[in-house]
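Lecture notes, unit on protein representations.

Consider one protein chain, 267 amino acids long.
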Amino acid sequence: MVSIGIAYVVGYRRLAKRRHARELHRNRGAVFAVGYTALLIALISPLHTVGEEYFSVHMVQHLLLTLVAAPLLLLSNSMPVILWALPRDERVGVGRLVGQPGPVRSTLRWLTHPIVAWILFVGTQWVWHQPALYDLALENRYAHYAEHILFFGTAVLFWWPVIGAAPLHSALSYPLRLAYTFLAWLPNSLLGAGISLARGPLYPYYVAAGQRNGADAGFDQQLAGLIMWVPGDLLFAIILMVLFVAFLQDEERRAARIDRELDLRRG
C-alpha cells in the first residue's frame, strides 16, 4: 500500500523533469492523492478494525473502496506515472507487456470488456453480501483479504470502460458510458434497500458483535443498508453528472471541429 504512494511520488518527480512535463497536470496528482487517501482510510485506518464490530462502518469501508478510491485512481491516470518509478529496463518491459498486443494486454482487455466488467463488479457485490460468505470474511482473516481485493479489483475493472485510463482507452461513447453506469446503480440500490428493509438480522456475526459491544444489531444493519443505498446512490449520481458534463463538452468539441472542417472546405 505505502509502496504505491512512494512509487507515484517518485514517478511524478521524474516525469516533472522531462520536456513533456506539461502533460503531467497537477490536478491529476490531486485526484490521485484523494483516491489514494480513500484507499488508505478503507484498508489500514481504524475504520478497518471498527468495521469488524459495526456493519455500518464496514459498509463505509466498502463504499470507499468501490465508489471513491477505484474511480479516482483511474481518473488520475496513475499507471504511467507509477511506471516511471521503475528503472528504465523494467519500465520498458512492463510498458511493452501492457501496451503491445500479447496475452497480458488481451487478458486485461477481456476483463475490462463492459459486459464482463459489469458482471464481475455487480456479481461480487451481491455474492459477498450473502450472509454465509459475509460472515466468513469477518471470521477468517484471509477470506476478509480476498473480499477486499475482489471488491476493489472488480471496481477498478468496472470503472475502466467509463474512464478509459491508460493503457486501455475506452471504446464506449458517452451515452453508452452513462447507460453502463446507470445499470450498475440500480443493483446497488436494490441491495442496499434489501439490507436496510430486511425484517430481521441477516448476519449472525454482527448479532454476536452487538451483544459484545452493546449495539443494536437491527439498527446497525438498517444503517448499513441505508449507507449503501443513499450515499451509494449519491456517489453514482455524482459520477453520472460528471459523465454528462463530459458528454456535453465532447459534443461541443465535435461540433467545433466540424465547423472548422466546413470552413476549410469553403475556403
